[in-house]
TrEMBL record:
SUPFAM superfamilies: P-loop containing nucleoside triphosphate hydrolases. It comes from Streptomyces gancidicus BKS 13-15. GO terms for molecular function: ATP binding; ATP hydrolysis activity. SMART domains: AAA. This is ABC transporter ATP-binding protein.
């Protein structure tokens, strides 16, 4: 994935400001920053659902939103995208049928069983989605995104509301998807300790990319012990640069 001068304007507000970055294939890239910095808007641009996007954004060798990408990208929004009046299995079977029309029920069952095991919900397959906890419903949404073994997974804060054990298990799954299946993952979070679990980071603030690189490189660049401290130092540097620019006008 590659972006150059990527800009999104919503009304009178510029939400993304001329972003430029690269997301390497087969790696986990963490998109980190405070709430409201533009992470979700950027993810919608990547999957092709964001309006008023200018600049260049190439995804898997195609322009973002190209019809050929629809079956190659799995997308998980912050709000669970499931039907509460269907069971977990029925939800997954429904989306599997949409993803690949014409497949037999037996073929779909294999896919459904696989993703249920991936997100540790096999024992809840016959439970109504509406009766699940918030964290469980989020995992159903993740299972939907895993149907069809996508080349790119775009996950908007997938670990919010999960207990530490489930968070650990999901990150282990993310690494297996990258290392064993060659998938590329773009994972957003405002929890800085999750940054250490990523291969690559994009640090965002106020619609801009403050820095990109590996966690180690960003810590070294700022002389910090943690990514959180590195982020705060980069914020301070950006604020100081803005004040200097303002004073010289």
């Amino acid at each position: 994935m590659h972006a150059q001068d990527l800009t999104v304007v919503r009304g009178s507000r510029t939400v993304l400001r001329g972003l430029g970055f690269t997301v390497p294939r087969g790696r986990i890239t963490g998109l980190l920053g405070p709430s409201g910095c533009g992470k979700s808007t950027l993810m919608r641009a990547v999957v092709g659902t964001q309006a008023k996007v200018t600049g260049t954004l190439d995804v898997l060798g195609r322009p973002a939103g190209h019809p050929s990408l629809r079956t190659r990208i799995g997308y998980v929004t912050q709000a669970p995208s499931v039907y509460d009046d269907l069971t977990v299995h029925q939800n997954l079977d429904y989306f599997a049928a949409i993803l690949a029309p014409g497949r037999t029920a037996a073929d779909r069952r294999q896919d459904v069983d696989r993703v249920l095991a991936d997100v540790d919900l096999t024992s809840h397959a016959d439970s109504l989605a509406g009766a699940l906890s918030g964290g469980q419903r989020s995992r159903v949404s993740l299972a939907v995104a895993l149907l069809g073994t996508p080349d790119l997974l775009v996950l908007d804060e997938p670990t919010v509301g999960l207990d530490p054990v489930l968070r650990r298990d999901l990150w282990q799954l993310f690494h297996r998807l990258a290392e064993e299946r060659g998938a590329t993952l773009l994972v957003s979070s405002h929890v800085m300790d999750e940054a250490e679990r990523c291969h690559q980071l994009l640090l965002m603030r106020a619609g801009e990319v403050l820095a990109e690189g590996t966690p180690e490189a960003l810590r070294t660049r700022t002389g910090s012990d943690t990514v959180e401290t590195a982020f705060l130092r980069l914020v301070d540097e950006a604020a100081a640069a803005a004040r200097t620019e303002e004073s010289t006008r």
